[in-house]
From TrEMBL:
Name of the molecule in the record: MmpS family transport accessory protein
Species the sequence originates in: Micromonospora zhanjiangensis
InterPro entries from the UniProt entry: MmpS, MmpS_C
Subcellular location as annotated: Cell membrane
Main location: membrane
Keyword set, alphabetical order: Cell membrane, Membrane, Transmembrane, Transmembrane helix
One Pfam family linked to the record: Mycobact_memb
UniProt similarity note: Belongs to the MmpS family.
Highest taxon, organism lineage: Bacteria
Taxonomy of the source species: Bacteria, Bacillati, Actinomycetota, Actinomycetes, Micromonosporales
Region (Disordered): 45-67
Transmembrane residue ranges: 24-44
Amino acid sequence: MNDDSVIPAAAQPPKERRRAGRSVLVVLVSLALLTAAATTTYFARRTDRGPAPSAADREPTPAAPPRPVVLTYEVQGKGRAIITYTDPAQKSNVVLPDQPLPWRIELPRQVVDFAQVNARRTSSESAPWTSRIVVDGAEVCSQTLDLYINTGCQYLPPSS
């Protein structure tokens, strides 16, 4: 064999194939560099925030205690009803059977966690009737019904 032998052209990769291989290599190296730069920037920003918060820093701030309010319950309409309402001072429900309507009670100023009033019609009266809850003079719930035998309102004070 001759030292000047030339490798056949079919065995050599075409120039286009070499260029495509270089392009893929350039893209892969660029992606690797961008990933490394982004990771370094991310961790650098994370460590610039200072020390991690302690357990005391992560605990929620306690809410302000609820403020005392004047609570008023009302059931308006005609006829008679069984009225049930929550008395925050007793932490229980009060049931008043066969009450004439309209009915109203204003409870003394106190802390209220939850309030509700329900009325169940005991007469055959079919006129509309309304249950209401008023807190410090402002209505917080009202429900008017025409045909149903029950009406009720509930109130949950917003947390401070």
